[in-house]
Amino acid sequence: MLTTQLDRLIWRRHRKLFATMAVLAVLICVSMTFATISGLRYVDTTQIVDVSIRRWQVYSDDQFVAYTTFFHFMFLGIGAAFMNQDLKDNFNQFLFSSGFSRKQVYWAKLRIVLAVLVGIVIVVTGLQYLTYWVAAPAGMGFQLAWPGLLTSWAYGLMMSFGLFSIGWFAALIMGQTGTMILTLLGFTISLAGLDTIYDNMLHGGPFHLNGSQRDWTIILTLLIFAIVLVIWGAYLYNRSSLEHNGEYLLFPGLKLPVYIVFVVYVTGLSLFNQADFNTVLITFVVTVVFGYIWLWRPRIGEAWHQWRQHQ
Amino acid sequence: MTLQVKQLSKQIDKRPIIEDISFEWAPGEIIGLVGRNGVGKTTLFRTMMNHYVANGGEVLVDGTSTLAKPALQQRLFFLDTQYNFLNNYRLWELPDFFKLVYGKFDQERYMQLLADFKLNRNSQYRRLSKGMRALVNMILALSSNATYIILDEPFDGMDVIVRENIATMIIDEVADQEKGFLISSHDLNELDGLSDRVLLLKDAKLLHDYNLEDVRSKAKKLQLVFNGKEIPAVLKAHSQVIRASGRVLVVVITDYTPEIDQELRALHPVLFEELPLTLEDLFRANLAHDTGYQLIK
Description:
The complex is a heterodimer of chains A (311) and B (297).
Chain A: H1 5-39, H2 70-88, H3 91-96, H4 102-135, H5 146-173, H6 177-203, H7 211-237, H8 255-272, H9 277-296, H10 300-310
Helix pairs in contact in A: 1-2, 1-4, 2-5, 5-6, 5-7, 8-9
Chain B: E1 3-12, E2 15-25, E3 30-34, H1 41-48, E4 56-61, E5 64-65, E6 76-78, H2 94-101, H3 107-116, H4 130-144, E7 148-152, H5 160-174, E8 180-184, H6 188-191, E9 197-202, E10 205-211, H7 212-218, E11 220-225, H8 233-238, E12 240-245, E13 248-253, H9 258-266, E14 271-275, H10 279-287
Parallel strand pairs in B: 3-8, 3-9, 6-7, 7-8
Antiparallel strand pairs in B: 1-2, 1-4, 4-5, 9-10, 11-13, 11-14, 12-13
Helix pairs in contact in B: 3-4
Domain ABC transporter (chain B): 3-228
GO molecular function (chain B): ATP binding
Organism (chain B): Levilactobacillus tongjiangensis
């Protein structure tokens, strides 16, 4: 996997992060599996996995989850941490003058981090399935089928990749770790509101999609969004200039687009969630003012004192 | 073999920090970079090394732009003293990174120099004193075997003995004409006797590119005492007054000609003594205007 000097450099730099994440994933996921298995004793069934696993659809129930939700958080967190750490610890300075083009560095980083994350998913999922197989209560069967597994893995990985791209891109354009985490949390939580809007749009109006079609439409939209973010990230990384390190946005040219997206996005959420006119108006005004203060940091207090002195 | 900085410019927050900087640098040269605080010395280094994206210009190694062929950057070494990634690592770990970038990195020499300077290889970089960090940076630079080594305030925090050892090592390094150093320093005494050339930055621009041998052959520093209290017109026209104490004047004349010599002697000074000319004198003489460096008016 580590074919070039650059790969080895990135691996040397981040191997502790990867190892920590792998250990954490094993501990959390295997202990969750044990907890689920211990609850199976009280369930009146002879099979842990339902026969619906033989169908080409995402499989998930209380007894068995083919692709663990923890992986989504892992992809989101590592996407952000991996990119942010190099900025915060000034490793970008070394990378930018290491004799490799920014383009090479960007794609090598992406390739390595995704390969490691997928590797962790494979190993941890294998351990989880093994735990089910070994520790299943007596008299209870554990039978899997490829259609359900493959569909669940594909769906899960696409969702994880979508969240990864959001964390990755946020860390690429933001120069402050704390506010980056807050922004990321706010945006990720707001995606739940977006899900409701999507649900309303795809069930009513011109679309009459069933549950499965709706899920796949959402995941494909997320995948396209993720690919756009990753490609846009490559473009921006090539133009990243480290004098903005420590500022909220590392690219001053993004202030206005981020402002517009923020106002439209939050107001749109309020509008599509069938809020009344006053609520939408208040949301709009608050986002306009808050976004302006957040992004441009006007020295309102200083301006106020200056104005008063002139009076 | 040359490195060429060509019309390099960088603006930060729409303010020009360096403007149109051009110079050439060949292995075997030790170039000093001087200028007052905030004039853009570190920005020049960071822009040369692609940490900052330049607004204009380029860096060429043997005629090829480092942006067109990034591998050429491996011929340059620069470790940002303010922003570097070394903090979380122990000294023995650092070659792991540098040898992946600098093909000729000499790990044996690195370990030997750590031992010579009594630095514990198990120490964490962030736990070192300022002077010890500067020393580790210097050891990394020397071990990298890069052709062009950029050092930003390298002697900051070092004690006199270590400083002298390092200066000797730098001079030894350039002896075979395979390496060159570009050294910025506020303490001009540090560069005295070390640099062959001095680049003077002022108002974001490269004001002068001095060949010190030429400059020293033309310039003179004089201590003079005249009968009258008035500063003679010839001095007002051609010199920078470095110090005035009563009737004793210390002046630097950057272009000392036989005509000036004749005019001064014709004034029959009570004292006419030539003093050794330091880099600091030249710096003061050239930056006296508009910088607040004037000692008398």
